[in-house]
Amino acid sequence: MKFTFGIITSTQVPVEVIQSINSLNIPEYEIIVIGGGLKPWYDNVIHKPFDENSGPYTLKKNLITKYAKYENIVYTHDYLIFDNNWYEGFKKFGDDWDICMNVIQNQDGTRFRDWCVWDDPTLCYNVEGYSHRVILAPYDYKKIHYMYISGSYWVAKKSVMEENMLNENLGWGEGEDVEWSKRVLSKYSYKMNTHSITKSLKYKKLSAEIIPEVLI
User: Fold this and answer.
1) DSSP state, 21?
2) Other C-beta atoms within 10 Å of 195: how many?
3) What's the pTM value of the predicted model, to 2 decimals?
4) CATH 3.40.50.620 correct for 3-200
5) Contact present, 90 and 70 (Cβ < 8 Å)
6) What are phi and psi of 135, to 5 degrees?
């Protein structure tokens, strides 16, 4: 499997992120960074400067699609690193998917925004005082019609993304990932890869914005 790793940033991508990708020993891959500066140690990175005043970060992600050489594209922010067995996990998982997610962990090992549902009528509205909430769902396909793909990280085919670009009229905090999720999940196969893990450098524990996993 060949991969393009597309990373968006407005400052610098931590060296740990680049090192974690290079350490995966993928036979054919590329790293594209959109925005920010470029440190000398990023020898194998394709850096595309980005004027932060030219548009929202949805434009950055669409540029990843434009520049990607390979069909399998990883879309990620600059604070996620890849577990040593990430690539081996994808080989086990296989290539039969349009859009997929893998396990994402906070620094304490709790789950970050990986396999989520949004506005599920049985999970999101049964907590007093809550609605329009994100729930970390079990790793199965029972809630596939309510899935939500967090804009922080996902993996997709280039052909799928070319047909379904992110809405560049929406920026961070404006529901751009929810809007995109609703568009694509009614048309494409969305699968969960539990063999591969991505880890956060930014968040130490479960985000207070997410109601903890509900077991059903």
Assistant:
1) H
2) 16
3) 0.91
4) no
5) no
6) -120, 135
